[in-house]
Amino acid sequence: MAELESLETAAEHERILREIESTDTACIGPTLRSVYDGEEHGRFMEKLEARIRNHDREIEKMCNFHYQGFVDSITELLKVRGEAQKLKNQVTDTNRKLQNEGKELIIAMEELKQCRLQQRNISATVDKLTLCLPVLEMYSKLREQMKSKRHYPALKTLEHLEHTYLPQVSHYRFCKVMVDNIPRLREEIKELSMSDLKDFLESIRKHSDKIGETAMKQAQQQRNLDNIVSQHPRIGGGKKSRKEFSASSELEVKNTSPMSEQDSGILDVEDEDEEEEVPGAQDLVDFSPVYRCLHIYSVLGARETFESYYRKQRRKQARLVLQPPSNMHETLDGYRKYFNQIVGFFVVEDHILHTTQGLVNRAYIDELWEMALSKTIAALRTHSSYCSDPGLVLDLKNLIVLFADTLQGYGFPVNQLFDMLLEIQEQYSETLLKKWAGVFRNILDSDNYSPIPVSNEEVYKKIVGQFPFQDAELEKQPFPKKFPFSEFVPKVYNQIKEFIYACLKFSEDLHLSSTEVDDMIRKSTNLLLTRTLSNCLQNVIKRRNVGLTELVQIIINTTHLEKSCRFLEEFITNITNVLPETVHTTKLYGTTTFKDARHAAEEEIYTNLNQKIDQFVQLADYDWMALEPGSRASDYLVDLIGFLRSTFAVFTHLPGQVDVHSTMSGKVAQTACMSACKHLSTSLLQLLLEAEVRQLSLGALHQFNLDVEECEQFARSGPVPGFQGDTLQLAFIDLRQV
Question: Which CATH architecture has domain 429-450+486-601?
Answer without folding.
Answer: Orthogonal Bundle (1.10)
